[in-house]
Amino acid sequence: xxxxxxxxxxxxxxxxxxxxxxxxxxxxxxxxxxxxxxxxxxxxxxxxxxxxxxxxxxxxxxxxxxxxxxxxxxxxxxxxxxxxxxxxxxxxxxxxxxxxxxxxxxxxxxxxxxxxxxxxxxxxxxxxxxxxxxxxxxxxxxxxxxxxxxxxxxxxxxxxxxxxxxxxxxxxxxxxxxxxxxxxxxxxxxxxxxxxxxxxxxxx
Length: 204
Ligand code: TZP
Ligand code: MG
Description:
Blueprint: E1 4-5, E2 7-8, H1 18-27, E3 32-35, H2 42-55, E4 60-64, H3 67-72, E5 77-80, H4 87-94, E6 99-104, H5 107-116, E7 120-123, H6 141-150, E8 155-158, H7 166-171, E9 176-178, H8 181-184, H9 189-198
Parallel strand pairs: 1-9, 2-3, 3-4, 4-5, 5-6, 6-7, 7-8, 8-9
Helix pairs in contact: 1-2
Magnesium ion (MG) binds at residues 64-65, 80-81, 84.
């Protein structure tokens, strides 16, 4: 289920807002949506997550960082970074059937994530990005290839990906990818996602 274009919300970059963006993403056939909100209050996040979960009834609906919100809205899982809640604690709180994705920046973190039981890894950042200020140093696609060759859970690439550089990310072995600004800041989110999905046509 974690493959192809992986959608992450960003209300700061969005033209039409999260609700509209997620509707377009679902219409475009994405298999997973991650609700990421770094600025809203807990109440705002809870209300919006409930709304988005309804739109994502037939696909995976994941929450970035916020275990409390994920549990409160009964999301399908969460995505955590290296500085978020430790994987083991998150797993205990969510139970064995929820999805947990972990951001990794190198092969060691990827191996640890897989060994711990993560359902997929997010490899970040592949290229330089201004969407996440603390994303760290770009790895290039060689890290995608290295991780792909060493672990067997799905890999989602993120960070500075656009339609021009996405083919090399897919060729390096990414099972999925997310391009936030390259999709959300455009007028037609549906059409942009469709373009990226075409790159996976032979893989899905
Ligand atoms: N996590 C790692 S990089 C990133 C996130 C959320 C931002 C990616 O945004 P963009 O616009 O696709 O570079
Ligand atoms: Mg995080």
